[in-house]
Amino acid sequence: MKLTQIIEEEYKEISGRKKNIIKKIYSKALKNLLEYYEQVNLLHLLADSFPDEQFQCGLKSLFQKNPWTREEITEFSYALTSFQEKKYFQLSGVFLTEMVNVHYEKTKTKKTYIIPTIHLDKKLSHLGKELRGAHLHIEGSAGEECGQNMHKGLLVISGDCENYLGHEMWNGAIKVCGNCKDNCGTSMNNGNIEIFGNAKDRVGKYARGGSIIIHGNCGDNAGTEMENMHIHIKQNCGKNAGSYLKSGSIEINGDALENAGYRMRGGEIIILGSAKKDVGDYAIGGTIFVYGNIEKVGHLFGGEVYWKGNKVEKES
User: Fold this and answer.
1) pLDDT in tens, 227-236
2) 207: which of 186, 194, 226, 292 fits an S-S bond (Cβ 3.0–4.6 Å)?
3) CA separation (Å) from 23 to 12, 75, 136, 277, 292?
4) Distance between CA 240 and CA 263 in Å, rounded?
5) Rounded to a whole number, what is the distance in angstroms from the first to the last CA of the chain?
6) What is the Rg, in whole angstroms, of the alpha carbon atoms belonging to the chain?
């Protein structure tokens, strides 16, 4: 059975007023999208959920012919409920974001695009991927790689989000009202990310610019090998904060676990609470300030550690 036939079968099961509302949406969006897959032989994308450049260009040309309204974009996100079990469901986040991009570039509207996901059993991934200036508000939680490679604009997620939020983003702002899983802001180039809940491991790893604010707790390996950016953790932080740090700064309002500043090369780490053992172990540069208790200072090769304003001398 062709994918376009699957769409028709799904559509037949919808009845009443909702059918009238989304009739145009199904025929103009999902059906045309799947026809496009078949025409250009991109069916492999439905399996791995990672659209390539050719897919992005195809979407853009598709919607230049059929401009959408903000209301249709919102209604389309509701319509996704009927397609959650299909293997192309995870592409919907890219699909929705490209709809937003094309509409925004045509209208330059200052209004916010709302994508309601709270009614979905599964989480949409790739929302805000390559966002190019619009304000996109996700009402509910979101899946992986949201805000990836975004260029400008604002992405707000009112719930939680999965891994790789803001991965390799170039500019713009992301706000998450809930919690975030691993790899938030990894390899980001610029822009701002703010998490109002907790974040798990590897926040800002390999990042090269921008800022990340975590209002809750943060997991291990925050700021690993980052440079020219700022991370502010307003509660406690896990192990290896700022390991291999090149430049920039990490500020921790609470306590830090073991190996803060491990092998750091530059930049600074400020810990307002206490720090566990091996602070600055094998550091060759940079500065660490600790204002609470220090369990143990590590072997310093070139970096500096200050405890309550006093410099800690290197072991002979």
Assistant:
1) 999 999 999 9
2) 226
3) 10, 10, 24, 63, 62
4) 10
5) 75
6) 23
